[in-house]
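Run: sequence + 2-acetamido-2-deoxy-beta-D-glucopyranose -> complex structure.
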Amino acid sequence: MDVPAKGNILGRFVSARYILAVLGSIGMAIVYGLKVNLSVALVGMLNHTAIKMNEQKSDHGSHNVTVRAEVECEPPTSSGHAKEADGPFLWSSEIQGIILSCYFWGYFVSQIPGARISELFSAKWVMFFSVSINVVCTLFTPVMAKAHYVAVIIMRIGEGIGGGVTFPAMHVLLSKWAPPAERSVMAALVYAGTSLGTVISMLMAGVLTANLGWESVFYVMGGLSCLWCVLWVWLVQDSPQQQPLISKEERELIVTSLGGKADDHEHKKLPVPWKAVLTSGPFLAILVAHACSNWGWYMLLIELPFYMKQVLKFNMSENAVATALPFLSLWFFSLALSKSLDWLRGKSYITTTTARKVGTLFASAVPAVCLLGLCYVGCNRGLAVALTALGVTAIGGMFCGFLSNHIDIAPNFAGTLMAMTNTVATIPGIVVPIFVGVLTHGNQTISAWRVIFFVTIGLYVIEIVVYTIFGSGEQQPWNNVPQNDGENHEEKPLKNETDKNDQVAV
Ligand SMILES: *[C@@H]1O[C@H](CO)[C@@H](O)[C@H](O)[C@H]1NC(C)=O
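>> structure
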C-alpha cells in the first residue's frame, strides 16, 4: 500500500466519506433545528394576556356554535399546567400563522435553482450558504422582532430559502461520495439528522426560554451553529478527487465503485434531459411516493397533536417525552433499517430495487395501519400516543427508501430530481392544514377526524401501489446524456479484478 501524501494524516485515520456524512447530518440538524425553534420560542415571546383580550373583544360571542353531536372525550382529571409567562409581543393569531408558515415560501422557490447550482458548480458551497443564511437570520431574529413583525417574516423567508437547498445539495454530495453499497446508510445518516435536530432544538429551546429568556434561544443556537460552518469549509470537499484529507485507498474505493477514474478532476456539466425525466416511470414513482409520504408526515406531526388536544383533550406538546421520543426512535430505526438493507444488498440477497421498496413500504404501510387504529381507539389517550409514536418511527424507512432512490436512477442529476420531488412534496405542507381546518371547523369530533385519517390512508395506499409497481433501483439510460465531445469517459476500462478485491477488504 502507498504511504499517504504529506498533509494527509487525517485521511489515514478516519474515512473522509463518513466525515462528510456526519457533518452533513449535523448541517441538516442545524437547519431543521433553527426552523422549529421559533414555534417553541414564540410561546415566550407573546403577550398572551393582551392577545386573548383583543381577540375576545373582536369576537362578539359569535363563536358559540361549536357542534358536539357525538362522542366527546372527558378532559383528563389533572390538567393543571403552569400558566404561560407573558412576553413583549402583541401578534394576533393571524400574524403568528404567517410568521410560522412563511418559511415555506422560501423553501418552495429555492430548491430547483439550488440543485442546478449544486450540480454545475459546488454542492459544498450551496450547503454552506444554506446553513449560514439560517444562522444569520436566526441571530438577527430578536433584533428584527423588536423592530416589526414584517422583519421577522423576512428572516423566516430567508431561513426557508436556505432550508430548501439542503436536500438537493446533500444529494449531489452523496452521489459523488457514497459507494453504492453504502448509499442507504450514508443517506439515512445525513437525512435522519433532520429528526435529531428537531428533537434537540425543541427540548433546548424549551429549556432556554424558561431559564434565560426567549432571546437566548436565537443567540445560543445561532452561535453554536457557527462552529459547523468552520468545520464544513475545512473538512468537506465536493468530490473525493478534490479532497486532500483522504487516503489514496479510500479515494479509489469511492471513485471506482461509482465507475469513474480516481485522477479525473474534470467537472461534467450536463444539461437536464427534462423530457426523459418527466416521462420516466421510476422518477414519477419517487415523485408520487414523496408527495404522499409528506402528506402523512405533516398529518402525524402537525395535525395529530392538534387532534389529541381538541378531541382527546390531551395536550401532547406540553409533554416533552411524548413529543421528543418518536423523533429519537425514528432516528434509530432509520439507521438500523438502512444498515440491514445495505448488508442484505452487499450479500446479494436483495437488489437495490427491493431495498428501496422495502424501506418505502415500512414508511407507508406502518403509518397507514397506525392511522387506521387511531380511528378506532376512541378516547384511549395512551394507545393513541403509542400509535402515533409507532407511525412516526416507521416513517424513518423513507430515508433508505424512495428518498435515496434519486441517486440510484440518475446520479448525474440527483440534486435536480430531489429538488423536483421535494418541491411537489412541499404542497401537502400547505394543503394539509387548510384541509383539516375546513373539515373540522366547528366540528371537532372523532368522526370528522376519521374522514381526514381515511384520506391519508388512501394516499398511503396510492404510494404503496405506485412505488411497488414503478419504482426501480437501476440507473436509467437518460442519466448519461450523449455528448458531442465523444465517449471519453469510456476510453479506459475499469480497474482490474485484483483491485476490486482490495476494495472489498478496505
Ligand atoms: C401584556 O399586556 C397587558 C395588557 O395590555 C399589560 O398590562 C402587560 O404589561 C403586558 N405584559 C408585557 C410583558 O408586556
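>> summary
Residues 14-56+89-244+271-502 form a domain with the Growth Hormone; Chain: A; fold (CATH 1.20.1250.20). The two ends are 11 Å apart (CA to CA).
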